């Protein structure tokens, strides 16, 4: 069995948002960190919300935990009351050393997953997530690359083949891996378009802040248009000092 | 990441059978950790400074100069300096205590944990009322500025609109804080920066002018036209301009890297506003005689600006005055609501008081508990009384903060591990306590009476409602 990749699953625990259908199956081979969070306006001290909601939130969290456990995942959970969910996500990714964050959306039990490969950077982490999740399953994986203007199709093939080799090394069946190369102008539209044929998307976070990617612009583009779950693989954080912005 | 254990255990029940909420297990740089939940800390250094400066600057510059100059003449600069020194003497021990106990409630929390429930109740209920008086004072100031705007655009009304405008702003602010989910912190930070820019430009020009650089005659005057006593009395009056740094401690539970940011935000905001205040009075009194400033009243600074740079200056200061008094009132209402939360968390008032409504996620009862009494107080329109009672109630707390520091340093309970140690122990905290209590003696008798009544009622409430509640840490 491959190593279980640690995947953070943020859930707005008090606002009716649950664990979307299909998500536990998708993450059956993962180590799932369920992050129950509740965002408060500035007028409200987080502790105030804790007094009132802690019990109910923890009840719901334990329900979510057992859903993931039933599907086969190992699970832990945290409950955070916050005024700044980006800061909370960042901190939790760091604390749990998570490989990826799930943008939860409902899906059918997964059969085909699209893996978007941007370049060589961070490919190993993507491979660890994909192999960890799907090596011992019947899920088919399609490696997807958009060719830039200056690159050739051969470059793309070399890139994707190397990823495929790495996946096989990590225990995936060769027959479960497909390759798809496209040449288009708008990368995000292209990914969204391609994704419609799949049950879930795995992609690396964009080069700037992870959170703008997960829940900002690109998430609107990919996760929301796609309407299925997106697993966003985190860049390696090289012992970065946690940032205490002056804001 | 440093992690600190808090070993304060609370106990007992109030009349309604409620117990104080459990204390957190530990405090880290970014969170307060309870057994089954974490509370994220989200306010950084700039946010903390903005709370401190934003709360303070409204009063000292935009409301008091006329009144203060009228009472003490040019020596009002010394009154403001005295206030600044006292504030600093309290900000230092408050910083040390805050790094040891970075929890919501600030001064109330320090005192209840180190000196027991009775002192805590008097200070906590007093702080709530103190903030209510302060907010009412800022709102009356805001009413004056809004009225001055009306005057400027030529709208004349039969009755003075100061109080009605103040009341309208009180209602609007309370409603806004209950239903507003917009990001007000960013706006508040921007407002503070804008204010500091306007003031720096204006005061630099004014100072150069006062020193004769532009070759204009400044108004010659005796420095102590009324003697020294009014200078101290004026210090007591204008001390309301120095209440904001304690508001930083009120939200200590939300401050990131508390051991670094709390001391910097508190001490820094006191030093910054003191400089601005002293220069403001210097500029104002060199532009006009004290008598004339007094006649201008609450909006004297508008006339000073008009004297220097004409209409654009007057408009800029009017605008700044509106912003400053508004942000002071807003910050104080939010602090009052935080104080209500801290009190209800500790079962000193019904826990229902800090309930959050589901629609907006805001503590509507606590906010109304702040906004309601503010409305009543604004209706009185007594600027000086409101200011002095607010100062009185804060000064009691400030004095006790200094005492609490001395108590904790002497007894060294195991849970008291501040990361910042104030210099000059025991002389400075002792001086801070003496100065805080001493300044009260120079207030008007009516303010002292109202303040004592509030304290007596607070104590009576404690005995009736929460006599069995234990908040003091183990010694």
The biggest sheet of chain A, with number of strands, parallel, antiparallel or mixed sense and barrel status, is: 9 strands, mixed
Q: In percent, how helical is the residue content of chain A?
A: 25-40%
> SSE order of chain A, as H and E?
EHEHEHEEHEHEHEHHE
Overall outline of chain A: globular
- Mean pLDDT across every amino acid position of chain A: 85
Q: Could you describe the largest sheet of chain B, including whether it forms a barrel?
A: 4 strands, antiparallel
Tell me the distance between the termini of chain A.
Answer: 45 Å
- The level of helicity of chain B is 55-70%
- What's the CATH architecture of chain B? Up-down Bundle
Portion in strands of chain B: under 5%
Number of helices of chain A: 8
Q: What is the total domain count of chain A?
A: 2
Reported by name, the CATH topology of chain B is: Amino acid/polyamine transporter I
Distance between the termini of chain B: 28 Å
Instruction: List how many beta strands of chain A DSSP finds.
Output: 9
Poorly predicted tracts of residues of chain B: none
Query: Looking at this structure, what is the CATH superfamily of chain B?
Result: Amino acid/polyamine transporter I
| Order of strands in the sheet with most strands of chain A | 3-2-1-4-9-8-5-6-7
How many structural domains of chain B? 1
């Amino acid at each position: 069995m491959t190593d279980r990749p640690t995947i953070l699953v943020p859930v707005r625990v008090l606002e009716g948002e649950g664990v979307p259908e299909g998500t536990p199956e998708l993450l059956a081979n993962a180590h799932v960190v369920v992050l129950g969070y509740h965002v408060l306006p500035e007028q409200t001290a987080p502790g105030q919300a804790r007094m009132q909601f802690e019990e109910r939130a923890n009840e719901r969290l334990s329900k979510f935990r057992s859903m993931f456990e039933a599907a086969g995942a190992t699970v832990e959970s945290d409950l955070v009351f916050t005024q700044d969910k980006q800061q909370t996500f960042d901190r939790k990714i760091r604390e749990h050393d998570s490989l990826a964050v799930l943008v939860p959306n409902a899906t059918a039990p997964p059969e085909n997953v699209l893996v978007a490969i941007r370049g060589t950077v961070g490919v190993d982490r993507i491979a660890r997530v994909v192999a960890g999740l799907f090596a011992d399953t019947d899920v088919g994986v399609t490696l997807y690359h958009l060719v830039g203007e200056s690159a050739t199709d051969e470059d793309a093939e070399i890139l994707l083949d190397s990823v495929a080799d790495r996946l096989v090394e990590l225990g995936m069946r060769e027959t479960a891996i497909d390759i798809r190369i496209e040449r288009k102008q708008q990368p995000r539209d292209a990914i969204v378009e391609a994704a419609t044929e799949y049950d879930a998307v795995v992609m690396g976070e964009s080069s700037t802040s992870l959170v703008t990617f997960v829940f900002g612009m690109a998430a609107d583009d990919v996760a929301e248009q796609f309407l299925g779950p997106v697993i966003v693989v985190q860049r390696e954080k090289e012992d970065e000092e946690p940032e205490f912005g002056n804001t | 990441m440093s992690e600190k254990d808090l070993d304060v255990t609370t106990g007992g029940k109030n009349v309604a059978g409620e117990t104080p909420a459990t204390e957190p297990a530990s405090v880290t740089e970014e969170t307060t950790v309870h057994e089954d939940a974490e509370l994220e800390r989200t306010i950084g250094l700039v946010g903390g400074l903005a709370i401190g400066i934003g709360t303070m600057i409204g009063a000292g510059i935009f409301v008091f100069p006329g009144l203060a100059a009228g009472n003490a003449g040019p020596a009002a600069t010394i009154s403001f300096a005295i206030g600044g020194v006292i504030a600093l003497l309290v900000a230092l021990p408050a910083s040390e205590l805050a790094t040891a106990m970075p929890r919501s409630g600030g001064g109330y929390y320090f005192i209840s944990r180190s000196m027991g429930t009775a002192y805590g109740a008097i200070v906590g209920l007093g702080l709530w009322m103190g903030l209510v008086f302060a907010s009412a004072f800022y709102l009356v100031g805001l009413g004056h500025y809004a009225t001055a705007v009306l005057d400027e655009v030529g709208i004349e009304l039969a009755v003075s609109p100061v109080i009605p405008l103040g009341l309208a702003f009180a209602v609007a602010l309370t409603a806004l804080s209950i239903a507003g989910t917009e990001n007000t912190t960013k706006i508040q930070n921007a407002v503070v920066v804008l204010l500091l820019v306007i003031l720096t430009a204006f005061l630099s020009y004014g100072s150069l002018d006062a020193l004769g650089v532009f070759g204009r005659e400044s108004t010659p005057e005796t420095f102590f036209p009324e003697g020294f006593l009014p200078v101290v009395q004026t210090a007591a009056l204008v001390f309301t301009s120095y209440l904001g740094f304690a508001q930083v401690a009120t939200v200590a539970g939300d401050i990131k890297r508390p051991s670094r940011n709390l001391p910097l935000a508190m001490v820094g905001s006191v030093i910054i506003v003191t400089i601005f205040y002293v220069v403001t009075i210097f500029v104002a009194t060199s532009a006009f005689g004290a008598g004339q400033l007094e006649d201008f009243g609450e909006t004297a600074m508008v006339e000073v600006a008009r004297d220097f740079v004409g209409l654009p200056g007057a408009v800029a200061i009017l605008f700044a005055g509106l912003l400053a008094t508004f942000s002071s009132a807003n910050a104080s209402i939010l602090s009052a609501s935080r104080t209500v939360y801290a009190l209800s968390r500790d079962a000193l008032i019904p826990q229902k008081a800090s309930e959050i409504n589901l629609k907006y996620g805001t503590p509507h009862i606590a906010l109304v508990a702040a906004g309601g009494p503010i409305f009543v107080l604004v209706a009185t329109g007594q600027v000086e009384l409101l200011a002095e009672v607010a100062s009185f109630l804060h000064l009691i707390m400030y004095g006790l903060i200094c005492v609490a520091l001395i108590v904790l340093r002497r007894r060294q309970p195991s849970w008291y591990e501040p990361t910042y140690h104030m210099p000059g122990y025991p002389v400075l905290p002792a001086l801070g306590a003496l100065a805080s209590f001493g300044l009260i003696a120079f207030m008007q008798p009516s303010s002292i009476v109202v303040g004592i009544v509030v304290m007596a009622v607070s104590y009576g409430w404690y005995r009736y409602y929460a006599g069995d509640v234990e908040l003091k840490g183990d010694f």
